[in-house]
Amino acid sequence: MQAFQQLCGFNTFMYYSASLFQEIRFNQPTAVGLIISGTNFLFTLFALEYIDVVGRRRIMVFSAPGMVFGLILASIAFHYMTIHTGGNLVTGAQYSHGWAGIVLLSMIIFIALYATSLGNVPWQQGELFSLDVQLLRCNLYHTPIKHTVRGIGTLLSTATNWAANFLIGSTYLSLMSAIMPSGAFGFYMGLCLLGWLFCVFCFPDVSGLSLEEVQNMFKDGYGIRESERLRRVKREILQREKGKLSG
Q1: Lower CB count within 10 Å: N or C terminus of the chain?
Q2: Between the CA of residue 11 and those of 5, 8, 84, 133, 223, what are the distances in Å?
Q3: How high is the pLDDT of residue 66?
Q4: Which residues contact 71 (CB under 8 A, 6 or more apart)?
C-alpha cells in the first residue's frame, strides 16, 4: 500500500504542477497549483472524518477506479492537446484552452479521490502489525536487541514509501520526455490499476478489530473474508446492545 501510494504518481503533481500548468499556458500557474494543493488538503480532512465510518477497504476499492479515470482523462487530454507539437510539451507553444481545462479537471478528480483514500489509508499501517517483542542479535556487539514486530513493520513500510517517492520524483521528467505526457500519465494509470487490483484481492479491512483478531485473521491467507465476518459480528453485537439499552 505504501508503494502504491507513491507509484500512482501523486507527488509528481505536488512537485511539478506549477511548472506543468505554465507549459500548457495557464496565465497563473502558481494559483492553479494552489488549487491542486487545496483540493488535497480539503479532501484529506474529509477522509480523516469518515475513514472509519466507510471502512478502509471499501474506501480504497471504490475510490481507486476514480483515480484511474482521472489519469486516463489526463492522458487523453495531453494526447489531443499536443498533437501539433509531436506529442511533447514545447515551451512557448499555444495549446487549446479546452484541453488544458480538461487536464486541470482530471487532476482535481485524481487528487480528490487520492486524498480521500490512498493518501490516508496506508498510514493506518500500525494496526496490521502485532506488538510482540522479539530479540535481534547484533553482530557488532554480540548482544541481543529487543524490538517489536510493529516497529520493524512500520519502519520497512515507511522506507518503502520514501523509496517509491524517490523513484517517481527522480524519473518524472525523463518519463515525460521519453514517452511523452500522454504516455507518462498512461503509465501512472497502469500502476494505479495494479494497486486497485491489490486492494480488491489482498487488502482486508481491520477497522474496529482488536490486535488479537487482526493476528488471527492472517492465519488463513489475506484474511479479507475473515475480516468482513468479524466486523459483521461486531456490528450485530453492537446493534443488539443498543436495542437492549433503548428497550
Answers
A1: C
A2: 9, 9, 28, 35, 31
A3: 94
A4: 8, 9, 106, 110, 185, 186, 188, 189, 192
Q: Residue 134 forms beta bridges with which residues?
A: 147
Dist CA 46 CA 27 (whole Å): 30
Q: Which three cell numbers stand for residue 61?
A: 476499492
In the chain, what is the greatest distance between 2 CA atoms, to the nearest angstrom? 73
Say which residue, 128 or 59, is predicted with more confidence.
Answer: 59
pLDDT digits (tens, 9 = 90+) for 204-229: 887 777 777 777 777 777 777 877 88
Mean pLDDT of the chain: 83
**In angstroms, how far is CA 61 from the centroid of its own chain?**
11
Cα–Cα distance measured from residue 12 to residue 6, given in angstroms and rounded to the nearest whole number: 9
**Residue 82, Cβ density class (10 Å: 0-12 exposed, 13-18 middle, ≥19 buried):** buried
pTM of the model: 0.82
pLDDT at 239: 79
Which residue, among 170, 74, 70, has the nearest Cα to 117 in the 3D structure? 70
What is the number of other CB atoms lying within 10 angstroms of the CB of residue 10? 22
* Secondary structure (DSSP) of 6-43: HHTSHHHHHHHHHHHHHHTT-S-HHHHHHHHHHHHHHH
